[in-house]
Write a structure and sequence with these properties.
membrane; MetI-like; MetI-like fold; 290 residues; mainly alpha
Length: 290
């Protein structure tokens, strides 16, 4: 027995609600620019390394719209190239945490018993630490670098997804269509993947957008401390850190990458809010397929 979703005919689609939401008007263009900048980053390797020794720590000008850094490198080019790191954090780190956390939450919530107790105690232990403190611990153990920073962010984000999914599954597993599937001999993996997981998609989408903003902030903090992106690869957190030593002579070096971090985090948070409201307003009615 499988399940489907049926929405009342008078309800507008979720995408229609997003088109009417002013938060989405801000979030979607910003995130689109972020993706386009990340796509352009591989073609900017030469421009990222190019230096203008006659314009060190220069302010915005026609030649360098956002100014230059202490080595004469164009800040605009480096901000655009740094978008690739941000997209990697939002996709790789959060995506890995989404997959692992969802799997653990499904198993813990559906099986219950000692499996649930063991998994949730480990999860609670990880959640007891502040996210950045735990990420710093993982990176300190693995060593600095973007790859290790992505692993650290995935590790500290996974328990959040696991706890969320487990709570949702505890509610869904008592539904009559889940009980009927067990009675007719449907296997546990099929129930988890085909019966329970589809009903978690909306909740996971909203939560992933929220966690993407948190992960981006964590990566920027790690890079600011020298544990994330390593020079000469551009990263927004590292650019803010290098600019703090030159605030008296070049405010642009820290302000523009910091503004990029702020706008990206705000865009993900606003998108999550808009998605939540749209999905709540048009939440489907669950019914079994006969």
């Amino acid at each position: 027995m499988a399940t489907t979703t049926k929405s009342p005919p008078h309800e507008r689609p979720v995408l229609g609600s997003l088109r009417r939401d002013r938060r989405a008007w801000f979030a979607l263009p910003v995130l689109t620019l972020l993706v386009l900048a990340a796509a352009a980053a591989p073609f900017l390797d030469a421009a990222v390394a190019d230096t203008d020794t006659d314009r060190l720590l220069a302010g915005p000008s026609a030649a360098h719209p956002l100014g230059t850094d202490e080595l004469g490198r164009d800040i605009l080019v480096r901000v655009v190239a740094g978008a690739l790191v941000t997209v990697e954090v939002a996709t790789i780190a959060v995506g890995l945490a989404l997959v692992l956390g969802t799997a653990l939450g499904l198993v813990a919530g559906y099986r219950g018993g000692w499996v649930d107790s063991v998994l949730m105690r480990v999860t609670d232990g990880l959640l007891a630490f502040p996210l950045l403190v735990l990420a710093l611990t993982v990176v300190a153990a693995l060593g600095p670098g973007l790859r290790n920073a992505l692993i650290a962010i995935a590790v500290v984000t996974t328990p959040r997804f696991a706890r969320l999914v487990r709570g949702e599954v505890l509610s869904l597993r008592t539904r009559e269509w889940v009980s009927a599937a067990r009675i007719v001999g449907v296997g546990t993996p099929t129930i988890l993947v085909r019966h329970l997981l589809p009903h978690l998609a909306g909740t996971l989408l909203v939560f992933a957008a929220l966690q993407a903003s948190t992960a981006i902030m964590a990566e920027a903090a790690l890079s600011f401390l020298g544990l994330g992106v390593q020079p000469p690869q551009p990263g927004w957190g590292g650019m803010v850190a290098s600019g703090t030593a030159h605030l008296d002579s070049s405010w642009a070096l820290s302000v523009f990458p910091g503004l990029a971090i702020l706008l990206t985090i705000a865009a993900f948070n606003l998108l999550a809010d808009a998605l939540r409201d749209a999905l709540d307003a048009h939440r489907p009615v669950l019914s079994p397929i006969r």
